[in-house]
Amino acid sequence: MATDKEYPEKLLYDEAHKREHDQMMKDIEQRDILFNAVNDAVTLLLDADVDNFENALWNSMGLMARAVDADRVRVWKNYEEDGELFCTQMFEWSEGAHPTQGMKITIKTSYDKDLPGWKETLSRGQCINKIVSDMPPEGRGRFSAQGILSLLIVPVFLRGEFWGFVGFNDCHRERVFTKNEESILWSGSFLITNALRRNEMTQELALALEKAQAASQSKSNFLSNMSHEIRTPINAIVGMTMIGKMAHDTVKKNYAFEKIEVASSHLLGIINDVLDMSKIEANKFELSAVEFDFEKMLQKVINVIVFRVNEKQQNFKLYIDPKIPARLIGDDQRLAQVITNLLSNAVKFTPEHGSISLHINYMGEEDGLCEIHVFVTDTGIGISEGQHDRLFSSFEQAESSTSRRFGGTGLGLSISKQIIDLMAGEIWVKSKLGEGATFAFSVKLKSAPGEDIPSEPAVLKDIRILVVDDEAETREYFSALSQRLRIACDTAVDGSEALLMIKQNSKYDICFVDWKMPGMDGITLARKIRSAGASEPVIIMISAYDWITIEHDAKAAGIYGFLSKPIFSSDIVDCINTYIGAKFIGKKDTISQEFIESFKGYRILLAEDVEINREIVLALLEPTMLSIDCAANGAEAVRMIEGSPEIYDMIFMDIQMPEMDGYEATRKIRSLGLKKTGEIPIVAMTANVFREDIEKCLDAGMNSHIGKPIDYNEMLETLKKYLLRQ
Predict the structure, then answer these.
(1) For residue 186, what pLDDT is reported?
(2) Which fold has domain 458-580?
């Protein structure tokens, strides 16, 4: 039996034991609550699909927060930028808030600057369990401003790497979270972030699958369209070939040849688009900068487009900012390709009698680069705003029905964007369905030294011209050019005003007269001028319509010549010089017979394995009176040169040939050790026309390159360069 002295000690022991027992039971109960909360949270996340994942994540975080009496839970994910570690808030739960709150929060927080010491502690796998008032001043201020009194930061590791952390905040009391809370919340945080990552991966896979399916469908549509696009010109070529063979008169044969030429050019354009696209996808699409005449580049583009414009009786307008330098440095062929593509689309998608304009502005020069903006506007079918972003993607057109109605491969705009990007520019579209479209782009090109305007010949001094056109743009263009050339120019809006001006001013050297004008057309005006008994002035008809349709009546009315709209300054100057009596400025497009016959007495070797290609070259060069020998492959070409090196003045060398290709043949000819074989011009004549193909030809020892299909004028210029250089 215990004594009175022993009883108080026993009583104290029993009370301590009871308190320990009660605390243990409380801890067990708290652990059970936490385990149940984590278990319920995991069950919610496992049962959730992609569509209701956000709600499940929200409820899961809420279960864990309430289990530890926390007011706020935040999930943060790490990322690295320029060698520095940052974290961004991915999701936030707080009592009474809506599940979507926090989903758009992206806070760029630096561990080094904003959370000193956290990276080291958390990356070691240790929690940060603090009362905010006990923290250093720099951390205390950050969290006190958010109303946080206590916090538990639990690190999360995925696949052994420090992925981020989950933060539990208490905004009502100061406390240190228990070891049980810390341990179980660690497990719960890991499960939550795993579920979050799993959901991200599921969404990424779904998006990737959707993109893959869309890409597959786009390419299927593309192949279907491509089959149609290729078969259509081939059908025309085959059909017109049969018609031409059966035709007994020259007119019908020539008609068939013209149609074959048009269909062949269209087919070549399709093939070029596909080849360009393959270069883009292989990251081998490059530009080749040369010095070029900006206006002449545009003339070539317009010559390609104007036939189709006239065929659809569309109104075409052109404006070129006179401040644009005459000569620029850049890839003129690719620039022309973009403008041609935009104009072709405008013509294609604009109905008959619609309007198309090409407007080119000079935006100034900076650091030696001229910025030029090009606008192609039409009154066509337009494009819905929702389709704008798709237009510049490969194999895409605005609507799936577009290719069926209008044709096309869906590659042109994608290629154009790549070209413009390489030229340090931008391309964009403004359009609404049914209200036409404006496609525009900017490029930066170097200005080249040279004349800004056509050279002023002596004959232009003291001459006087009259321009008669109801379009203000045409009158303004002539007036601006005349000021630059320092010649006198009057303008009239119609025939009546023109007759009055001729009567008052008596003498004009040359009149430019529009054909289609209200009240009195150009032919009627010309008759009235001539009926007054005046042999002067020279009258030139200007019109967007084909000269052939009006030539007979125009000449009968005393009209000397014709200028096609849109009009370029070089055309006007050449016309003035032609009909006033001075020589042409610059080179003529036509090649004189005297020039062609200047090659008589020269001998060349043609190395080409395809018989029809040899026939084409022989037929094209027949008027030159060149002596031409043929080799069927590279090995034969080497033997012929080795046997008689002195007799040949030049070699046209195909690349892809059996037995020995053109590269190897060139290297062997150059290595023969003879003076003639080391100096003889060797020109590649091949369908390999990419920049690296040309460079490969030059590296093999060739002097130059001509692409297939063969351009006759380019071939004659090459002959002139290497045969007539002395």
Answers:
(1) 81
(2) Rossmann fold (3.40.50)
Which segments within 235-368 are labelled E, that is strand?
A: 290-293, 315-320, 327-330, 355-366
Give 691-721 pLDDT, tens digit per residue.
677 888 899 999 998 887 777 878 888 898 8
Q: Which residue pairs from 203-210 have beta carbons closer than 8 angstroms and sit at least 24 positions apart in sequence?
A: 203/50, 206/50
Neighbours of 67 (CB within 10 A): 21
Whole-number pLDDT of residue 632: 92
Structure tokens at 43: 């069950």
The residues spanned by each domain of the chain are: 19-204, 290-447, 458-580, 593-723
Reported pTM: 0.50
Three-state DSSP state, 168:
strand
Structural domain 290-447, CATH architecture? 2-Layer Sandwich (3.30)
What is the length of the chain?
Answer: 726
Q: Which of 362, 319, 358 is closest to 471 using CA atoms?
A: 319
Q: Could you give the CA distance from residue 258 to residue 281 in angstroms, rounded to a whole number?
A: 35
Same fold yes or no, 290-447 and 458-580: no
The class level of CATH for 19-204 reads: alpha beta
pLDDT of residue 101: 45
Whole-angstrom Cα distance, residue 366 to residue 423? Answer: 15
Is residue 162 within 8 A of residue 125, CB to CB? The reply is no
Assess contact for 275 and 411: CB atoms under 8 A: no
Q: How far apart are the first and last CA of the chain?
A: 138
Say whether 237 sits in a helix, a strand or coil.
helix
- Two structure tokens written together for 462: 């003291």
Mean pLDDT of 494-518: 86
pLDDT digits (tens, 9 = 90+) for 363-383: 998 888 899 999 999 999 888
The per-residue pLDDT for 591 is 47
The rounded percent of the chain whose pLDDT value lies above 90 is 21
Q: Residue 394: its pLDDT value, please? A: 56
- DSSP single-letter state for residue 673: -
> Which fold is adopted by the domain 593-723?
Rossmann fold (3.40.50)
Please compute the mean of the pLDDT values over residues 146-170 and round it to a whole number: 89
Q: Concatenate the DSSP letters of all residues of 467-521 into one string.
A: EE-S-HHHHHHHHHHHHHHT-EEEEESSHHHHHHHHHHH---SEEEEESS-SSS-
The 3-state DSSP class for residue 654 equals: coil
Cα distances (Å, whole numbers) of residue 656 to 206, 608, 620, 684, 709:
46, 9, 21, 11, 15
Q: Which of 603, 613, 595 is nearest to 655 (CA)?
A: 613
Closest C-alpha to 670, from 702, 712, 698: 702
Mutual angle of helices 179-246 and 6-47, in 10-degree steps: 10
Average pLDDT over residues 309-331: 86
Residues 6 or more apart whose Cβ sits within 8 Å of residue 721: 704
Tokens standing for residue 452: 């800004």
User: What is the pLDDT of the chain when averaged over all its residues?
Assistant: 80
CA within 13 Å, CB half, 572 = 31
Q: Which residue has the tokens 């593509």?
A: 341
Q: Of 434, 437, 459, nearest to 573 (Cα)?
A: 459
For the record, the structure tokens of 6 come out as: 């022993």
Higher pLDDT, 245 or 3: 245
Distance between alpha carbon 250 and the CA centroid of its chain, in Å? Answer: 44
